[in-house]
Amino acid sequence: xxxxxxxxxxxxxxxxxxxxVLTGNGYVSQETKDRVFxxxxxxxYRPNLLARNLATKKTQTLGLVVTNxxxxxVYFSELxxxxxxxxxxxxxxLILADGKHSAEEERQAIQYLLDxxxxxxxxxxxxxxxxxxDEIIDSHSQPxxxxxxxLRKNSSHCIYSDQKASSFMAVSTLLAQGHRxxxxxxxxxxxxxxxxxxxxYKDALSQHGVNVxxxxxxxxxxxxxxxxxxxxxxxxxxxxFTALVAxxxxxxxxxxxxxxxxxxxxxxxxxxxxxxxxxLAPYIVPALSSVRIPVTEMIKETIxxxxxxxxxxxxxxxQIFAGELMxxxxxxxxxxxxx
Length: 339
Known about the structure:
Helix content: 40-55%
Largest sheet: 6 strands, parallel
Structural class: alpha/beta
């Protein structure tokens, strides 16, 4: 294996000069740099990554913590794609750590990335509380950003979309179109996003003078199968509904399939809205109406903030991204709205 000393001899410089070229510390003329890099290429030398990181105090890596229960969904695929692409654009490597199934395991994943000396870390939390994340941010020097959760203390260290407000908006649109019997399929109720979207549904009904009826609410688990099961549960209760909101697009697609199997037409008999506006949403039949959550913009802002912090900058404001209802063929006004 080629050593740094052999590179130095080949380039006709000292070992210390090779080290300065690799770490970027101290002045080295461009001519000397060119000779060193040529010697590295010719010899096949690969610098010791750990040693270089210790010397420069930088690893050129960003860490991302996500619990594995989110891995199978289309939403996470989009999130990871944009995170990886934007990290690459910044000249860095993305390292993914699994938050698994509990707050303690999310903490362990964060500590794993800190031990790897990641320059900065993104947390997409499911189990850690807001207070716990504020404490983690306060306890470490590396910049840490929290995605999709609103912090109380370190508000400039979080990027999120107001899930409750987006749900409120979607249900209010259906109400404005004359629908009153609106069913809802929840996401997992141990998920902050699932809880907030259900809360927005209930608030929209209440503020428009429509009673919240528990028999119109079915619990889902984010999967198409649970969306189909949610429809079966609602129909088994014998309740009538002219519109249905599912807490994500996967469940909305499953719901549409089950409605079709029961000879219930979408949108003629039941209008359907999902969440997240996955890439498939405009291409199913009928094209799915969905609340678009601006994942790309959220990831971009998160990584830009981390890089700005790494350069010594500081943010004093929080960033909230609004959802947008993409109205397509799966929803239509009620044919006989109440006056």
